[in-house]
Write a structure and sequence with these properties.
Layout lengths: L7 H12 L3 H23 L7 H16 L9 H27 L9 H4 L4 H20 L1 H12 L4 H8 L3 H24 L2
Length: about 200
């Protein structure tokens, strides 16, 4: 059963039941959110080799394990869950990209399993780290705009869902998104031209 066949309200109900200690809600929730998590992971993996299905699955599984392993989760809504999932996936990708780059330089990096290293190509590894670093710089200038980018790009949330998670207006989300896209484009372009 895909998430499209169930209402976002039902997902929110299950998340809240899980937050209150109902483990049976987690069992019912898992298949409902798993396909959406796969869609998000696939979005991150675009541009990879055509045979990246297992790598997408590895990203989803690791993110899901991090989400399901939380003690006393306090899920407010479906959008909140996917916002946290977006942050988890971003961190997983950044950690793998940094580990992969460090190993290529021969540094004393942490050991990365072969399956984990295969998640990200060298080109995408650099792009992920560059985007992460640019987002960090944007976050020091305007943390709200950086959060909007994270939720939209890494979380796949729409403007209304972002507004709900951040408790701001949809107009503010749109304005922040337009500004942040332009800022990041300039930042990434200038960083590339300086190398």
């Amino acid at each position: 059963m895909g998430e499209s066949s169930v209402s976002p309200h039902r997902v929110t109900q299950l998340l809240q039941q899980w937050s209150h200690g109902d483990d049976s809600a987690l069992a019912e929730l898992t298949p409902l959110v798993y396909e959406e998590l796969r869609r998000l992971a696939h979005h991150y993996m675009e541009g990879q080799r055509p045979d990246h299905t297992l790598q997408t699955t590895a990203l989803v599984n690791e993110a899901y394990l991090r989400l399901a392993d939380q003690t006393n989760p306090n899920w407010q809504s479906r959008a909140h869950f996917f916002a946290v999932a977006a942050r988890a996936m971003r961190q997983i990708l950044v950690n793998y990209a940094k580990s992969s780059r460090a190993q290529k330089r021969g540094g004393g990096a942490l050991k990365v399993e072969l399956d984990e290293a295969a998640i990200i190509s060298p080109e995408q590894s650099k792009a992920i780290v560059d985007l992460h670093e640019a987002l960090e710089r944007l976050g020091t200038l305007d943390s709200r705009k950086a959060r909007v980018v994270e939720l939209k790009y890494f979380g796949g949330l729409n403007h209304g869902e972002i507004a709900e998670v951040m408790k701001i207006s949809t107009v503010t989300v749109r304005r922040d998104w337009v500004f942040a896209k332009a800022w990041l484009h300039d930042e990434l372009h200038s960083a590339t031209s300086m190398k």
